[in-house]
Amino acid sequence: MKKIAFVLSGCGYQDGAEITESVSCMIALSELGTDVQFFAPNSDFESVDHLSGDKNGSRNIQSESARITRGKIEDLTSLEPDNFDALIFPGGFGAALNLCDWAKKGSNCKVNPDVVRIIRGFNSQSKPIGACCISPVLLAKVLGDQEITLTIGKDPETAQEIQKTGAVHEYCPVDDYITDRANKIVTTPAYMYDDAEPHKVFQGIQGLVKELVEMA
Is 133 a known active-site residue? Predict the structure, then answer.
C-alpha cells in the first residue's frame, strides 16, 4: 500500500484549500487503495467570509483544514519524507497565502520553511509530487532552478511569474494534467479555470493521482 502525504492550507478557496479539489484528491487516492495522512501548518491566518468577501478574523490553518479531513490531521512540522511514497498539494488561494506569499510577491515570494524542507526532501529521494491549481507555484519557487515542467492552465500572468523561477510552464486544459517524468512532478490546472465544471476538475485530478501513485 502506497503512503501519501497530503498537505492542506485551510478550508475554502479564498483563503485556504479548495474543497472540491481536496475532496477530489481524497476520493481518487481512496479508489487506488492508498494510505493517506493529512498535514497542515499549525499557525494562524487572516480568514475571509466566503459569502461577503470581507475579512473574518484570525483562524488556525490546521484547525480549518481539519474540517475537510474529519479531524484527522497532523502538524506540518511532523511530516518526514522518509515515511511516505508521494506528496500531494490541492489548490485554493491558501497555497499562495498560507504556504507561501506568492499572492503578494509572485516569484519573489518566500515559502514556509517546512514546505521547502518537505518538497526538497521528496524531490531528493526521487519521490513523486502532485500539485493542483495554484499550488504548483510552490514547486516552481523551491525547485525552479532544476528547470522542472509544470502547469497552472493558461493564465498568462501566473505562467510568466512561474517562468521567472526557472521552471517551464506548459498549457493544459482543466480535465488533463502535465507530467515531468524526469523530476517526478505531476500538475493539473483545476480551478485556475474559474468557470470549470466540477466533473472536469475531478477528471484532471483523478488523472494526476493515478499518475502520482503509479510513479510512487
Answer: yes
